[in-house]
Specification:
230 residues; alpha/beta; three-stranded antiparallel sheet
Length: 230
């Protein structure tokens, strides 16, 4: 498929995957998992919310290696009430191969184990695919989020905005997409992102969110979070 052919990835000296198209690593070179936890899990205050939810829907721009999904799943398994259901919707224009995802998760054996049944079921074809394993549904949309977001069937409780750097990947950081994302978020629903760019924060405000700049991960001084108020 177009998506499969377009992908280009290199591995740095620490075996961190880097997208050559965006000249940007898929996760922090210092500790990708700790970054995911700080930015997305804590940024959306997911742990206390998981403890109360019957159903919870996380949505994400940029599936990448799957690290954010598996880290979320590991916490869901620890904190969710019995019988609760997690839906995780993720948009990805350039899907990695199964081999690349497996290699990217190698530093975290517990996440690699969680990923195995999903990787067995994933295909890289364009469009929507849904994988349900026990009380978790992974819904992966392969293609352009600018179009596919309008087909998302239900509203999100929390968003992970994890496209490559806004300066390098402006297609995933534009007003039309952020407005659509606002409309696909429950009132009171949240977003978190590692970027603290002023124009991104203003755009999220215009999309209906109350936005705040908080402490970033590692050497990044700031990041952005918010919740939908209108």
């Amino acid at each position: 498929t177009k998506a499969a052919m377009n992908n280009a990835i290199e591995w740095d000296e620490n075996d961190v995957p880097v997208a050559t198209r965006f000249d940007d690593p898929y996760y922090s070179k210092h500790d990708g998992r700790a970054e995911t936890h700080h930015v997305f899990i804590n940024g959306n205050q997911l742990l206390p919310r998981f403890e109360e939810a019957k159903n919870f829907h996380v949505a994400e721009l940029g599936f990448g290696t799957g690290l954010n999904f598996y880290e979320t799943l590991s916490h869901w398994n620890k904190h969710a009430c019995e019988g609760a259901h997690l839906t995780f919707t993720s948009f990805e224009l350039y899907p990695l191969s199964r081999e690349e995802m497996t290699r990217a998760l190698q530093p975290w054996p517990d996440l690699a184990a969680l990923s195995a049944p999903f990787l067995d079921a994933l295909s890289r074809q364009d469009g929507w695919q849904e994988i349900m394993i026990e009380n978790v549904t992974l819904r992966l949309a392969v293609g352009d989020a600018n179009q596919l977001i309008h087909q998302m069937p239900d509203l999100a409780d929390a968003w992970f905005l994890d496209g490559f750097s806004p300066a390098k990947n402006p297609e995933l950081w534009n007003e039309g997409l952020m407005n659509a994302l606002g409309q696909k978020t429950k009132l009171g629903g949240t977003f978190a992102t590692y970027t603290a760019a002023g124009w991104v924060r203003r755009m999220m405000g215009e999309a209906g969110f109350q936005v705040e700049r908080i402490k970033g991960f590692g050497h990044k001084r700031h990041m952005s979070v918010g919740y939908r108020v209108r």
